[in-house]
Amino acid sequence: MAKNTTKDYDAELNKTVFNIKHQRTFCMIKPDGVMRGLIGEIIRRIEKAGLKVVAMKMMLPTEDLIKKHYPTSDAAWVARLGSKAKKGLADLSLTAKDTYGTDDEKLLGENVLKGLIQYMQSGPVVAMVVEGIQAINMVRKLAGPTLPFMAEMGTIRGDFSVDSPVVANVEGRSIHNLFHASENPVEAENEIKLWFGGEIICDYSLGSDDIMYCKHY
Ligand code: UDP
Ligand code: MG
C-alpha cells in the first residue's frame, strides 16, 4: 500500500481513514469507447478528478469472462436489468407491453442481457483498477447514469453517448454507453478479482495526494 499521509489517530480510526483514502474500484472502457478513440479522454477525466489508475490492460474479452463479469445467473440482477429497460420506456411515455409484447422484467432483462454479451465482445476493452477517496462513487459519478439520454452533460455517458433503449431493444442490441464502473464495494471486489486476480496492482503516490486530501500545512 502507498504511504499513508494522514496523521496518526488511534489505530482503528487510522485504518478506517486509510481504507477510505485507498478505496479501489473496477472500471472499463467498452468496445464503442475504444473504437471511437475515447480512451485518452476517459482516462483524462479519471485522473483530473484526482483519482489514480493502479492497473490497466487492453483485451478482447471472451464470452465466458463477460458472463462472469455480469451476474447472469442472478435472477434478481437480470430482473433489475429488465426494470431499467422498462423505466427507459416509461420516461418516453411508452410501455413494455405495447413495445415488446411483455412487461415481465425477467424476460426483458434476459433480452437485454443477450445483446449486452454480444456488445461487450464486439471489440477490445480497456480494463482498469482506479484508486482514491470514495473511488467507487466517484467513478460512477464520472460515468453518469446507465441510459445515455438520462446522463447529465459533464458525465462520460452524457457528453459522448447518445442512444435510446427503445431503438436498442428493437434492434436486439445493448445500449452503447461507452463505459462500465462498479456500483458498490461487493461489485468492485468481485470485478477486480475477476479481471486482475493474481496480477500486480501498482502502488504509488500522486504529487497531488497531499494537497487534495491531507493536512499538509
Ligand atoms: N443495458 C441495456 N439496456 C438497458 C439497461 C442496461 O443495454 O435497458 C446495458 C448497458 O450497457 C449497461 C449494462 O447493460 O451499462 C449493465 O446494466 P447495469 O444496470 O448494471 O448498468 P450500469 O451499471 O452499467 O450503469
Ligand atoms: Mg452495473
Mind explaining what this structure looks like?
With 217 residues, this protein is of the alpha+beta class. It is 49% helix and 11% strand. The chain has 12 helices and 4 strands. Strands 2-3-1-4 form a 4-stranded antiparallel beta sheet. The model has no long low-confidence stretch (mean pLDDT 92). The structure holds uridine-5'-diphosphate and magnesium ion (MG). Uridine-5'-diphosphate (UDP) binds at residues 81, 84-85, 88, 112, 116, 146, 165, 168, 174-175, 177, 180, 183.
Return the average pLDDT rounded to an integer: 92
Strand content: 5-15%
Give me the oligomer status: single chain
- Looking at the structure, what is the overall shape? elongated
The largest beta-sheet arranges its strands as: 2-3-1-4
Small molecules bound in the structure, each named once: uridine-5'-diphosphate, magnesium ion
Low-confidence stretches: none
How many individual β-strands? 4
Range of helix content: 40-55%
Structural key phrases:
217 residues, 49% helix, binds uridine-5'-diphosphate, 4 strands, four-stranded antiparallel beta sheet, alpha+beta
Short description:
Helix content is 49%, strand content 11%.
Summarize the helices and strands and which ones pair or pack.
Blueprint (H helix, E strand, L loop, with lengths): L10 H11 L2 E6 L1 H5 L3 H10 L3 E8 L3 H7 L5 H16 L5 H5 L4 H16 L4 E7 L3 H9 L12 H5 L4 H6 L8 E3 L3 H12 L12 H5 L4
Antiparallel strand pairs: 1-3, 1-4, 2-3
Helix pairs in contact: 5-7
Bound molecules: uridine-5'-diphosphate and magnesium ion.
Uridine-5'-diphosphate binds next to helix 5, helix 7 and helix 10.
